[in-house]
Design goal:
With 390 residues, this protein is an alpha+beta fold. The chain folds into 3 domains: 2-136, 3-Layer(aba) Sandwich (Rossmann fold), CATH 3.40.50.300; 144-241, 3-Layer(aba) Sandwich (Rossmann fold); 258-385, 2-Layer Sandwich (Alpha-Beta Plaits). It contains 9 helices and 27 strands. The chain has helices at 14-25, 75-80, 82-98, 104-108, 126-136, 270-283, 304-318, 340-349, 369-378; strands at 2-4, 28-31, 33-36, 44-47, 52-55, 65-68, 112-117, 143-144, 149-150, 158-166, 175-183, 185-187, 192-194, 199-201, 207-210, 213-216, 219-221, 225-230, 239-241, 258-264, 287-291, 297-301, 322-326, 331-336, 354-357, 362-366, 383-385. It has an 8-stranded antiparallel β-sheet. The chain has a 6-stranded antiparallel β-sheet with strand order 14-13-19-10-11-18, covered by helices on one side.
Length: 390
Amino acid sequence: MIFVNKLDREGKDPFEILDELEEELQVAVRPLSWPIDMGERFKGVYNLYQNSLDLYQPSKQIVTESVHLNIQSPEVERHIGAKLSEKLRSDVELISEVYPGFNREEYLAGKLAPVFFGSALNNFGVKELLDCFVEIAPSPRAVQTEERVVDPYEESFSGFVFKIHANMDPNHRSCIAFVKVCSGRFERNVNYKHVRYSRLMKFSSPTAFMAQKKEILDEAFAGDIVGLPDNGNFKIGDTLTAGEDLHFKGLPSFSPEMFKYIENADPMKSKQLQKGVEQLMDEGVAQLFTNQFNGRKIIGTVGQLQFEVIQYRLLHEYGAQCRWEPINLYKACWIESDDAAQLEDFKKRKYQYMAKDKEGRDVFLAESNYLLMMAQQDFKNIAFHFNSEF
């Protein structure tokens, strides 16, 4: 689902935005709400899904009036004026001719994306998106594991950690592991098996989050998200079950596109920096590689913004300061081979380009596409992986 934000400011024509979305996302779009002007003249949106006129007032962070009416009704003029009414009718007619009608099956198959318009800062249009999501979202689906397919209607509990967030409460430096329940019922104060550690764990304060609000959960079912206090016991992809050994698939780390050395800018805060980097990497904010040649830490990301986020969070959440040093790298790829002799030979020859990820796996740091291609040609018994799930 797509939310086009900041309609209370001047911006591009909505039809132009829809064209860009289709071009960039390579998916068909269908507007389910439509803006009535924008910027200082923004009057609200017409909810195409519910055939209602949702009116907006800048001083109130809610839908000030929602009127169910036919768009051809003279009542529309009374609410938004004759000129805007005429344009709205023209836009809606064009939408019905150009864009396909909303089809839930195509949406569930990932072939169609519904689009909503609004102003998130003013909390306008957000509720309409959420209401629609509740109505059209899929029920919990079967999930593939390495061992078998897990059906959501099974009685036995299973779930996996898909996200870890540090400093949910900055006063306590707490981490929360978010678990998606895939089958059965999760219960508070019941022992569950941590598959990677092969040991039982009990949770006295599982939590449900809604924005900044949280509450203790007594139970949760397939499709629910449960927040579990984490003292370093979890990593992304970990599995909890009622006893069965399961390993969920589909949570790989992809090869980063940008790399920089991370350096400590304040020697008095070395421990804070180390802890901060460790927790942020556990979150999946970026990837950490340790160069085997010089022992230096390398952060890999998919964009420049992530470096700025890491630097900001280290300073404001951990009191640590870092600086970045550029490094010329093209790709980081995980390597493995059944030919132990060739693998060791490769690691010796490419020692200055070898690194370890935070799980201790071998990573080859290629400086250019040419060097990567030559390595693949010269060492044919070595597999070069561009994501960590292999």
